[in-house]
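Database export, one record per block. Field names are fixed; values are copied verbatim from the stored entry.
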Amino acid sequence: MLTFLSIVVGLQDEVRKGNGFILRTDGTVEDYNPDAESKVYNFNELKTKCGMDLAEILSLNNHGMLVCDEEAMFTGKAVNPLATMLFRLAYNDNSLGVIGDCVYCPSNAIN
């Protein structure tokens, strides 16, 4: 049986391999990889896929990065449980939660 932590560890392993994902607030995970040729995301497309006007990039130390909705808290979006756990594991900090749909990807996938 998969636990929440094992799902997060599996996502971390995939991001280390260069794969990216959209993490939805309902707990669903969608494959979302950068352009095959350039190896980077189209930032405007990324924001549209996640319903963001302003994006915030959260570095997760050696575990990639989250691209999150900077205004999610002000627009009534839900807490993102997977993104929150990734952030908390990276910083050993349980004081913050991540809100709204996010992209979890390698640190070099955004220029």
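Remark 1: Strands lie at 21-23, 29-31, 55-59, 65-69, 102-105.
Remark 2: Residues 38 and 109 are 9 Å apart (CA to CA).
End of record.
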